Structure formats: C-alpha cells, structure tokens
Amino acid sequence: MKKLEKLMSIGDLPEVAVSNVPTLNQKTGTWRVYRPEVDKGKCIKCSICWRCCPEISIDIDKEGFPIIKYDYCKGCGICAYECPTTAIKMNREGK
Amino acid sequence: MVKKIMTGNVAAAWGARLSRAEVIAAYPITPQTSIVEKLAQFVSNGDLKAEYIHVESEHSAMAACIAASQTGARAFTATSSQGLVLMHELLHWASGARAPIVMVNVNRALAPPWNVWVEHTDMMSQRDTGWIQFYAESNQEVLDTLIMSYKLCEDKEIQLPAMIGLDAFYLSHTSEIVDIPDQDQVDRFLPDYESAYPLDTENPLSIGSLSMPNQWYSEFRYKIYEAMERVLPKLNQIEEDFYKEFGRKYTGPLELYNTEDAEIILIISGAASGTIKETVDTFRKKGIKVGLIRLRIFRPFPSEALGKALSNASFVGVIDRSFSFGHEGAIFTELKASLYGRKSVPMIKNFIVGIGGRDITTDTITEIYENCFNCLNNKKVDVSVEWIDIKV
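Output (structure tokens, whole complex):
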C-alpha cells in the first residue's frame, strides 16, 4: 500500500479508505484558535486538566505538572474551565 | 441435496449457515426473530462455527458486523422495520467502509400505528445507504440469493454490502418446499472470504479516518459509484455460475412474466408477484395480453433492463408497497426517471397497494389491470397515483 502523502490521483488509491499512517501523524494543533498556557505558580498538581482533556493532549511530568501537547491540542479550553485554581489561561494564538 | 418444508426465515438461517457466516450479531424483532433463533440453535449445536454476539440494539448489531467484516470475517445479521431504520447511520458506514456484509431484512411496516405486517417502506427508505437491495419472491430465492450475495459482495471489484428483503409472514412465516444445497457444493461456489485490507495487529492500519475536502473523500465516494455500476454485470456472471452448480436459474434484476407481447405490464417487488402471475394467467386464457415484471433488485436500479423490457408495452402500472409522502411510490418515481429520454415511453400509472400488510388478492390485481385498460382506452392517465383498496 502506498503512503498517504505520496498519493497523486484516484488511480493510486486503495479500493477501501484505509490508511497505514499512524493517527499520530495527524497533527490537529493547527486547528487551535486559543492556546492553553499553564501557570506553574498557581498549579496545585491536581491532574483534573489531564483527566478532562478529551483529546489526550495533556501529559503529567515527573514533578506532577501538566504538559500541553501543542501538536494535538485543538484549543477547546475544557482544561482551563475545569482548573480549580485558574492556573490555565486560554490565550489567542499569534498574539 | 435435501428438500425440506420450511419458512422463509428458516431458509434465511440455512442460507447463512451454508455460507459459513463467521460472525452473527443480531437483535430480535418480529417477524425476523426466528431467523436469529434458528442460527443460535445452529451455533449452539455445533452445526455452524460462528461467533454469535448478543447485542443491545440493531445499531450495535451493525457496528459489530462492520468491525467483524473489517477483520476479514464473513458477517451476517437479520432485522426488520424499526430495527432496520435504527441501523440507518451504520448502514452508511458499512458501505463507506466497503464491508461486504449480507443482511436479511423481513419487510415490515413502520409504526405508528403499530403494525408488524408486510410493507417495503423500511427498505425503500434505505435507498441511499450504498447497499445492494434484493427483494425475494419465494423461500428458495431467499436462500439462494443469500449465498449468491456473499459471492457478489465479497468480489474485489464490488466490496459492498447487500440486504435481502422478504415479505413479512407471506414468506417469513409461510412454509414452502426448499431445496437445501449440499455444503460441498456451496463451498465450491463460495470460497472463504479474504479481505483485501484486514484489520490485523501485526500490520496495523486504520479504516475510514478523516479525509479533508482537498484530500480523497470525493474519490472514495466515486469508487463506490463505480463499484455499484459493476454490480449488475457481475451478478449476471454469478447467476450463471450458480445455475451450473445448483441448477436453479435466476434472471438478473428482473423476472419477466409474459411481457414480450403484453400491452399492459404491471411492475412489483416482493412476494405478491405470485398472485399477479395467477391473474396474468387468467387474463391470458381470455386472450388478453397482460404481463408482469418482478423487480428483484432496487439498488442498483436496473434502468437499462427496464427500458428494454418495456419498449413494446403501451401501458405500465407500477405497484408500490410503500410510499414516499409528499410525492409518490418509490419504484414509480425511479422508473419514470429512468425512462426519460427514451424514444417510446409507455403511459405509466402508480398504484399504492398492500400497505401495512393488507392482502393483495387476485381481485385487487384484476381491478388494477382493468383500471389500466380504462386509462389506455381513454388515452389518458386519470390520476398519476391511486391508492387501491382504501375504505371509502
């Protein structure tokens, strides 16, 4: 099967809409309008943001702080809404 | 080869058994239940080696069938009416994913008012889901079509799902003699299913992930269009192979009954065609030239074959056992559209009959033929759509 990126025309397509490229390649971060940013000074390491992220785009580091995976975060803002200490702020991209 | 007396539902179960369905996911609904009951019995007795999945709804049944099919298993389900329409979302998914699932649908009216008797609205309303649609006339045809459908659907040039409709009670619960082919014969005719793109943990891939407008969505839809265009020629070839192996002949999308010299032709799908054949015989004995076309396949719609079969007729009565509210019967609409642009087009009238399982008798059919003759003699179709047998 040909790699998705190499396809040029309908003749290159498999009959079925299959893809052998891992979904990790589908970087959805470009969809984001607002960017979550963590203020470590306010963060109490409760991990609520990590639990609530619908796109599994938050990791927790060794110290217990959240790390936003900006390659995939679509900027929905649920983490900021749920954060009990307002440690996550949504800032407009490009500003 | 064994001849047995069985209902249409048992014939359907035998069709799935002989086809060696590997995964059966189903939810019971009247008047389909005895299909999956029989299959459950086959599986528990060890007569059929299949994974039998009890699901919580028809929506889940179809989801399970799609997943099973994508791993390379031959998947089967059966449903009816409310169950079929609950599946609607997943029907689109199945064809989009090119999963060659075969499903039996016992054609039944939709509620309200509650009604479990025959009508074709359930399947007609699935017209655009990308499924091949068969309508059977006999229990034998249910069994045979099921086996042929797997061969058709699994063909690498097709890779589409098919549903086979059988009329509630007239077929589902009525016993007829059915010829059950030997398993060896069926195995020769229908080899194991091999998916071109099976889901496999050793060789991971995803099916149906996002495709943006500038990517390949249009092209994958175009491929379904092309595959559907190949269905009727492919079926023709499969029916010939079937005849060689089993000795029973099927004639593609249409069954023609005394149509060649007929002035008036009725068109119908489903089991009421038997009653019409009897009525045709009565007229013919009096020297009156009437005929019947039984529409076996509604999708893909056999426009060419119908145009050819109707080229000498003066008047066509289309009997719809369903209705598209706000317009007319579905077969009527499709037929008129497909005849557009032909040189000689007969007069056409739509008869809405047998709604909610109301019996279609020889008297009803005689009345319809006479209605057609009156229109023909007056050289005018009085009303384009007429509901027959309404109590006034």
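Chain B touches chain A at residues 96-98, 156, 159, 196-197, 203-211, 216, 219-220, 222-223, 227 (CB under 8 Å).
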